[in-house]
């Protein structure tokens, strides 16, 4: 650690330049002051570099969030029980829903009765394979049906398994 290295250097200087009573001479005080100043400048440079990297990281994160949220296809990320943990605005627009209608809800709540079996077997299949799986699903929303093609697969993050789902409107 740099602080420990600095302390060690400082103690060595004091030992080398102090008198037998460990009094600090003006010369020693100047050397210590210079060492502290150099250490301070190094820390300022490191802090500025950390701030620059943090800004760069925030910009990239914002960029990737916008790619997800503003994609021309609908995206949803669900757990293996089908509970939506993330959804993009395109899918919300396709379904004409608010985020509160979808986030932390199961997609099965939105899938029409005619597509419930397909939806069930889709999620059952995820427990067996990591391959992409395609299904056409029908969603009943406010007395209106919306047909969406979905291509989905599973992935692992932080020792949890999630389902990535892409939705494309069937014309």
Automatic annotation (TrEMBL):
Q: Recite the UniProt keywords alphabetically.
A: Coiled coil
Q: Where do the PAS domain residues begin and end?
A: 60-117
InterPro entries with a match to the protein in the record: PAS (IPR000014), PAS-like_dom_sf (IPR035965), PAS_fold (IPR013767)
Cited CDD domains: PAS
Q: Does the keyword Coiled coil apply?
A: yes
| Superkingdom of this protein's organism | Bacteria
Name residues in a coiled coil.
36-63
Respond yes or no to whether keyword Manganese is given for this record: no
Q: Which Pfam families match?
A: PAS
Name of this chain's protein: PAS domain-containing protein
Organism, scientific name: Acetoanaerobium pronyense
Organism lineage reads as: Bacteria, Bacillati, Bacillota, Clostridia, Peptostreptococcales
